[in-house]
Amino acid sequence: MSEFLTIGEPIALFASQDTDQSLKDALNFRKYLAGAEVNVAVGVSRLGHSAQYITRLGEDPFGDFIKDQLRENHVQTDYIDSTPDYWTAFQLKNKVSTGDPDIFYFRRGSAAAHFDAKMLDRIDFSDVKFAHLSGIFPAISEQALAAFRHLIDLLHEHNIRTTFDPNLRPQLWSSPEKMAATLNELAKEAEIILPGDNEGELLVGSRDPETIADFYLNQSERTQTVVVKVGPKGAYVKNKNEAGYWVKGFKVAQVVDTVGAGDGFALGLITALMEGKSQRDAVVRANAIGAFAVQAPGDNDGYPTPEQLQAFLDKNLAVTGDEF
């Protein structure tokens, strides 16, 4: 049993150590645990909350590595199934001095893409306060999409609050149109939606935060809040039938790797809400953990402990005069 759960495809990530070298030319790589939903679960656990991760892995070295890493990060693995019939996904990522790194996936036909939806009926929802959903898992196969929808039904049945991050991966979809239509349909089922302004351009045809927020608030009675991530500027928040507001971001000395920042934002928001903090303070925490994430090379190794987070907030909010 846990306070938080998510479903996704964990990945063994090989991150290049050769700065500004293409994936073709890079020779030195370091192995990490990766995957958007994994990142959120790891960060939730690091902040002292119980987290459960749902997936399917292959019976192979990558699958064993992922399970070991999850356990080391105190993420519960009761709902991880293993199969000898399919392999565990992995990916390559290059290292860049500026901008976003290039990524190449090896995940088609993976074990997670053959997820058995019957396993969802084993889940104990009794202590779950939040479930985080991402647009990646339903993109990996029609079988995964069907399981994702079944999980949504179960979450509604148990009255569990849900966040949804579109997490666009165009390379996993047959077309941009299919991606936008499917993700917007799935977004209707979430109470809180967490798009980025760049994602809004592909999903709703606009980068304007208020336009993005209004689209999702108006398309579903279930959706109550939209928080649009706008990079270093911070986030735009709008609740149904209320005026929107901005929560500014945090400046960092050096951006090392932007991957994992959006997942850090999600876990910051979720953990703060689970702790009973106000919505504004939850978004402050979300921005703070996003700032932590961009200063570390791995997808989730930069996420803070409670002590590190509080020290960061004490230092930075004292400068701005804000409160948390």
From TrEMBL:
<dbReference type="InterPro" id="IPR050306">
    <property type="entry name" value="PfkB_Carbo_kinase"/>
</dbReference>
<dbReference type="GO" id="GO:0016301">
    <property type="term" value="F:kinase activity"/>
</dbReference>
<keyword id="KW-0547">Nucleotide-binding</keyword>
<feature type="domain" description="Carbohydrate kinase PfkB">
    <location>
        <begin position="17"/>
        <end position="305"/>
    </location>
</feature>
<dbReference type="GO" id="GO:0005524">
    <property type="term" value="F:ATP binding"/>
</dbReference>
<keyword id="KW-0808">Transferase</keyword>
<dbReference type="InterPro" id="IPR011611">
    <property type="entry name" value="PfkB_dom"/>
</dbReference>
<dbReference type="Pfam" id="PF00294">
    <property type="entry name" value="PfkB"/>
</dbReference>
<protein>
    <submittedName>
        <fullName>2-dehydro-3-deoxygluconokinase</fullName>
    </submittedName>
</protein>
<comment type="similarity">
    <text>Belongs to the carbohydrate kinase PfkB family.</text>
</comment>
<dbReference type="InterPro" id="IPR029056">
    <property type="entry name" value="Ribokinase-like"/>
</dbReference>
<keyword id="KW-0067">ATP-binding</keyword>
<keyword id="KW-0418">Kinase</keyword>
